[in-house]
Amino acid sequence: MPFMSRNHHILVVDDDPVGRQTLAAYLRKENHRVSEAENGEAMRRVFAAGDVAVVMLDINLPGEDGLSLLRELRRQSEVGIIMVTGRDDDVDRIVALELGADDYVTKPYNMRELLPRTKNLARRVAAARLVTEDQPTKYFAGFELDIPHWSLKGPDGEEIRLTRAEFELLATFVTHRGRILSRDALIDHVSRRDRDPLDRTVDVLVGRLRRKIEPDPANPRFIITVHGIGYVFAG
Question: Does the N-terminal or the C-terminal CB of the chain have fewer CB atoms within 10 Å?
Fold first, then answer.
């Protein structure tokens, strides 16, 4: 497939010139096309030109902070986003992921670890863009899941905002409705990092989806738990 061999456009947003340039140089050495931005205004100029696959976004920027820019990017795009911070703060990490970040790394990071995570995310973004172009709109219980346009409308016609991971998980459920899916199978569709046997990503995402689509999240009708195995979508 073409997207598997392509070198991707990565945008590094960081007000620290040394850290930004060091990371950019490392990524360029791996034959990626890299743009740099020191703040939100510069980020917007690069992003407006199109074709950015992954944004590496520092959370502690002067003026507009990284979380504000993350919200802005997510309102207009499904670009891959990795949040970068100098603080090992669980609150920052959770908020960033809730707002739709795909991954989160803490400085000082290991370049050899960061590179494959960035490349894998870029591949997933490119793959999703190609795959969703050929996917039809799906319907369940009055909901309309428009896979090509990454949108979900409720029975009342109002759009329901989903993060990338929530959308990918729901699309997987709807596409395989009636089939029991293990957590391992599901995490392959949403995980940005190596699988951890204690990873609760799928369970957290299921809880968030239930709050958005279930009439009574405590007694779900659509996403049913199959104890000891995973979940089945009964919508």
Answer: N
Candidates 3.40.50.1110, 3.40.50.2300, 3.30.460.10, 3.40.50.620; CATH matching 2-132: 3.40.50.2300
Q: How does residue 185 score in pLDDT terms, banded at 50, 70 and 90?
A: confident
Q: Is the pTM of this model over 0.85?
A: no
Report domain extents, the chain. Answer: 2-132, 135-233
| Cα→Cα distances 111→23, 36, 198, Å | 8, 17, 25
Handedness of CA 24, 25, 29, 35 (dihedral sign): positive
The answer to whether 2-132 and 135-233 have equal CATH topology is: no
CATH of segment(s) 135-233: 1.10.10.10
Least Cα distance to 149 among 137, 165, 162, 161 occurs for 137
Cα separation of 9 and 104, whole Å? 19
Residues 6+ apart with CB under 8 A from 168: 128, 189, 190
For 43-82, how does the pLDDT look when each residue is reduced to its tens digit (9 = 90+)?
999 988 778 889 999 998 888 889 999 988 887 777 889 9
Q: What is the DSSP letter of 31?
A: T
Q: What is the pLDDT of residue 92?
A: 77
Cα separation, 29 vs 24, in Å, equals 9
Region 97-123 average pLDDT: 83
CA geometry: angle 194, 152, 173, nearest 5 deg? 45
Q: How far apart are CA 186 and CA 132, in angstroms?
A: 18
